[in-house]
């Protein structure tokens, strides 16, 4: 006589086996699903702000196009002779205002200088001024604004009043006044002027970012555990407050390049024998009817450069700001 509990045991065994098979099937499905180890991003460790931003930037066509243009500008700034064999200072008055011809695809300006060669070498000056001015402004403004936002009190009040004074100074007018007494033809007086009048904007951005970051719970927890002020600033606040500074500095880089060209055009920025797009635009302006090519090529190069840096800054802003996703 058979045991009546055998069918129940068989059903239980079958049920347990089915459950085990179902669990294994679900685990395999989850493992192969997007976001699992075999498909998509890994699910182990969540991405940080910077890795998440880089993940978005690589898929942003605006960032890719602007980055390619900027990389090309950096390349010709470091090695202009790679695409321009002549000298930007070699001029022949017999060829003044001549148009495009073999060996001179952009033609010649009013002094008989090769417009193509001067346009290529002018990128070195513009990129150098923009990068150095941006680094100086970012470092000085971030340090002063970060300290003011972290410590507050009298230091914060004094810095706020100083920044208000600098904001009241018109940039172009300040350049005309300060740089008119400078006789040097190097880029350093122009860079110094830009840093002098540019740091208050970065300082205000850094101050606000630090004030916001220092109120977070992890900063308060680190302070309660006895972390020093320097550790709080460098390890906990600065990494989380630097994003808006990077965005503003990237956009400002294009603005500084345009400002250098404006000051050089007005005759108070870079001076000959320096090669600058602003100098070439100023020299070609009287001949715009007879030789428009001498004005259009350096103006176009300046416009493309400024636009590339502004587009790069917009793409970085969209990637670093979670509210814009």
TrEMBL record:
Protein family according to the UniProt entry: Belongs to the binding-protein-dependent transport system permease family.
GO biological process terms held by the UniProt record: transmembrane transport
UniProt-annotated location(s): Cell membrane
Keyword Signal: no
Source domain of life: Bacteria
GO annotation, cellular component aspect: plasma membrane
Keywords, alphabetical: Cell membrane, Membrane, Transmembrane, Transmembrane helix, Transport
A family per Pfam: OppC_N
ABC transmembrane type-1 domain mapped to chain residues: 123-313
Name of the featured protein: Peptide ABC transporter permease
TM region positions: 62-80, 127-153, 165-197, 241-259, 295-316
Membrane topology field: Multi-pass membrane protein
Main location: membrane
Keyword Transferase: no
Annotated InterPro entries: BP-dependent_transpt_permease, MetI-like, MetI-like_sf, OppC_N
């Amino acid at each position: 006589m058979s045991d009546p509990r055998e069918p129940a045991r068989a059903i239980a065994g079958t049920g347990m086996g089915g459950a085990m098979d179902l669990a294994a099937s679900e685990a395999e499905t989850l493992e192969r699903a997007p976001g699992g180890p075999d498909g998509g991003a890994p699910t182990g460790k969540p991405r940080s702000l910077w890795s998440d931003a880089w993940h978005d930037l690589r898929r942003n066509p605006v960032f890719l196009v602007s980055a390619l243009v900027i990389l090309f500008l950096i390349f010709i700034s470091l090695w202009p002779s790679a695409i321009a064999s002549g000298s930007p200072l070699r001029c022949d008055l017999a060829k003044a205002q001549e148009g495009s011809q073999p060996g001179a695809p952009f033609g010649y300006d009013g002094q008989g200088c090769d417009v193509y060669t001067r346009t290529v070498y002018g990128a070195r000056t513009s990129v150098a001024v923009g990068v150095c001015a941006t680094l100086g402004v970012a470092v000085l403004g971030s340090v002063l604004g970060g300290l003011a936002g972290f410590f507050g009190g009298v230091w914060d009040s004094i810095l706020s009043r100083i920044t208000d004074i600098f904001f009241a100074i018109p940039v172009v007018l300040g350049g005309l006044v300060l740089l008119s007494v400078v006789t040097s033809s190097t880029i350093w007086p122009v860079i110094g002027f830009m840093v002098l009048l540019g740091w208050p904007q970065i300082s205000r951005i850094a101050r606000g970012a630090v004030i916001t970051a220092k109120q977070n719970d992890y900063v308060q927890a680190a302070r309660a555990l006895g972390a020093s002020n320097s550790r709080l600033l460098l390890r906990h606040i600065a990494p989380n407050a630097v994003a808006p500074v990077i965005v503003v500095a990237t956009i400002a880089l294009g603005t500084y390049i345009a400002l250098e060209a404006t000051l050089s055009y007005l005759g108070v920025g870079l001076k000959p024998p320096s090669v600058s797009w602003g100098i070439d635009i100023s020299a070609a302006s009287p001949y715009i009817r007879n030789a428009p090519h001498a004005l259009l090529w350096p103006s176009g190069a300046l416009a493309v450069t400024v636009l590339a840096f502004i587009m790069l800054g917009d793409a970085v802003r969209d990637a670093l700001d979670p509210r814009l996703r």
